[in-house]
Amino acid sequence: MDVMIQHVTKTFGKKKVLQDIDLTISSGKCVALVGPSGSGKTTLLRLIAGLERVSSGTIHFGSTEMTRVAPNERGVTMLFQRPLLFPHLTVGQNVRLAMKKGSRQDVNEWLERVGLTGRAESFVHELSGGEQQRASLARALASEPNFLLLDEPFSSLDLPRRRELRTLIRRLTEAEGVTTLLVTHDREEAMAMADYVYVMEQGRIIDQGNPVRLAETSPFFGDGVHLNGEWYSLSDVKLVLRPTKESFERVTITKELIQYGVRFYEVEREAGERLIVQTSETFSEAMTAYIVRKEG
Predict the structure, then answer these.
(1) N or C: which end of the chain has fewer CB within 10 A?
(2) What is the pLDDT of residues 159-205, one digit of tens each?
(3) Domain of 62: which CATH number?
(4) In angstroms, rounded to a whole number, what is the distance separating the alpha carbons of residues 217 and 133?
(5) Three-state DSSP class for 108?
(6) How far is the C-alpha of 65 from the C-alpha of 41, rounded, in Å?
(7) Residue 283 near residue 241 (C-beta atoms within 8 A)
(8) Domain of 233: which CATH number?
(9) Cβ of 250: how many Cβ atoms within 10 Å?
(10) What string of H, E and C letters represents the secondary structure of 118-175?
(11) At what angle do helices 91-98 and 129-142 cross, to 10 degrees?
């Protein structure tokens, strides 16, 4: 089921928080909304779910307009930062509650899919944070949703659990053919999960495209530097010991990295941000180096 957002605007009082949003999610694909806090990502997600009313514009699920349809009639399931499970029920009962119909075996099969084999009789407080989010995922997908909305579902987890869960979600949503929208401020998450990315800022979509292409070309999504007012991706710059151009950025070498015979350096910018830059020259830690544009 394709999802189409057309010319959607949202105002709260006199404040316009979303401005003329156009967005399409192809059936069975995962799209990421990426942007800083306050950019309008979660507001747009709430409009799609029907938790807020659209000020203008339309929302379609397939050929059906859903703009004014009640939330419980949209076939949408949401996964939040914190797992939303009923603490007085067992894990299996939580999953069974979301199913239109299903047996104990069906519940156990869903728990097995998310790596919770044998935990059907456990209570929520007996699970770790990562296990609770897995149980929430099982419940979300067991409801057979038309559309899955993910609102920063990994932010409360440590990095290993975060990577495990996003791999699991991607695998299961692909297998079930569930159309998915991920809201995140984390570029790595968008790169790992999304087929297509929309970048938001101040209530507008300011860039969009394939995540790999955006990482290489977009100053709003990719890693890069501004030299003399122009933005360059890290693949278009190099490190040198002495700059011969007027346009350069001074950095400090923090670490040498060699991968497949290619030398990279981790460098620290004056503002404290760190980048990984390829070079043919050799540097020592704590040395000053300069980022310049590659020739050609």
Answers:
(1) C
(2) 888 888 889 999 999 999 999 999 998 888 898 899 999 999 999 99
(3) 3.40.50.300
(4) 34
(5) helix
(6) 21
(7) yes
(8) 2.40.50.140
(9) 12
(10) CCCCCEHHHCCHHHHHHHHHHHHHHCCCCEEEEECCCCCCCHHHHHHHHHHHHHHHHH
(11) 30
Distance, in Å, from the CA atom of 125 to the CA atom of 45, rounded to the nearest integer, reads 29
- The pairing of strands 288-293 and 249-259 is antiparallel
Distance set, CA 273 to CA 199, 258, 286 (Å): 21, 21, 15
Which of these, 60, 43, 29, lies nearest to 180 by C-alpha position?
Answer: 29
3-state class (DSSP) for residue 279: coil
**Helix extents (H) in 31-82:** 41-49
Predicted structure pTM score: 0.81
Distances (CA, A) of 69 to 61, 72, 171: 11, 8, 30
Q: What is the pLDDT of residues 203-257, one digit of tens each?
A: 999 999 999 888 888 888 887 888 888 888 888 888 888 887 677 889 999 998 8
Q: Which residue(s) pair with 251 in the sheet?
A: 289
Centre a 10 Å sphere on the Cβ of residue 64 and count the other Cβ atoms it contains.
11
What tokens does 25 get?
Answer: 């999610």
Q: What are phi and psi of 54, to 5 degrees?
A: -70, 135
DSSP 90: B
Place of tokens 């929208």: 181
- By residue range, what is the domain housing residue 253? 224-293
